[in-house]
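FW: tagging you since you asked about this chain on Friday. Here's the raw sequence from the shared folder, copied in full. Didn't touch anything.
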Amino acid sequence: MYSYIVEQEIRKTFDHVNNHRWDEAVKAVAPHIHHRVSGHHALGGERHDKAALRRWFERLGRVLPTLHIRVNNVWVKGWPWNTTVFVEWDGTATLLDGSYVNRGLHVFTLRWGRVHALEEFQDSQEAARGLDAQAAAGLKEAAAQPIVS
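HL: got it, structure written out here
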């Protein structure tokens, strides 16, 4: 039962991201989180607090406004005091001059229902290519330095 509840909450979080509901997306995030996205681009880097993660989500919404993440599989392991969640996904977006397709895996670490760590594994070259395309089409923030804390 616990695994089912966690899976449903994680799926809701991806729905919040798809619909740019940033406050809801970070609602279960601990004040001191470790969030990492590989690659040297506007969405890469590491964040260590909830406020920086929210700014990162806001940027995600601005640089890839049509991004839609489809959750394919969710695996939940552990107990309420130390839970690991793996989420396999496909992401698509319409760019200013083309399309974007990426797939990846999120690894969440939860403690008593709060997200303490989130690591995103994806095709960082495709992410950089998509952001470069957005920047070349005039969206300057797509070429900005990563948000880090």
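FW: The longest strand covers residues 82-95.
HL: agreed, and The helical segments are 2-18, 22-25, 50-63, 124-136.
FW: great, closing this out.
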